Amino acid sequence: MLLAAAERLIRENGPSISLEAIATEAGVTKPTLYRGVGDRDALVNALAERLADRMAEAVQGQVAEASGPHQGLRSLVAAYLDFAARERHLYLFVTAGGTRDDRVQQSLLLADGAARQFSEPIAAYRAAHGADPNVATVWSYGFLGALHFATLWWLRDQAADIDIVIDQITSLLWSGMGLENSPRSGEPPREMPE
Question: Quick one: CATH architecture of 1-38?
Answer without folding.
Answer: Orthogonal Bundle (1.10)
